[in-house]
Design goal:
Largest sheet: 5 strands, antiparallel
Distance between the termini: 34 Å
Strand content: 15-25%
Bound molecules: guanosine-5'-monophosphate, zinc ion
Order of helices and strands: HEEEHHEE
Number of helices: 3
């Protein structure tokens, strides 16, 4: 837990948010500034600065996060078509340095983006 981390404050309940899913290790809630019709953040309860650090710290937390990504994609109706984004570093667009997955869906990504 990091006092000045926004996602730690959401995890602890200090900042209220509408949870879409929760487990012992992860939570999911909607992005405040959605970039697609479905834009959900899946966040480990453990504070690690990025997904690589989470992977190094706990394979159980990493596995739980991916299981929740699938659960959320299913519940949001985008299981067959969604994009999963992890930003690492300010240069890649990361603004909150607590690991999180962006689950994006509800739009056709096949014709825009970086050709990815
Ligand atoms: P990053 O840029 O670090 O990969 O993603 C951080 C995301 O958190 C951004 O998409 C931003 O819109 C979202 N965000 C920032 N503050 C809040 C907040 O207070 N509540 C929610 N639900 N999302 C937030
Ligand atoms: Zn944190």
């Amino acid at each position: 837990m990091s006092e000045d981390c926004l996602f730690c404050r959401i995890v602890s309940g200090a900042l209220p948010t509408d949870l879409l899913a929760e487990s012992e290790r992860s939570i999911a809630f909607r992005d405040i500034s959605p970039q697609a019709p479905v834009h959900v953040l899946v966040v480990p309860r453990r504070h690690e600065p990025n997904i690589g650090a989470l992977a190094a710290a706990s394979s159980d937390d990493l596995a739980d996060l991916f299981a929740m990504v699938s659960q959320v994609a299913q519940a949001q109706g985008v299981a067959q078509n969604h994009r999963l984004v992890f930003n690492t570093g300010a240069g890649a667009g990361q603004t909150i340095f607590h690991a999180h997955a962006h689950v994006l869906g509800g739009v056709d990504f096949s014709d825009h983006g970086l050709g990815l």
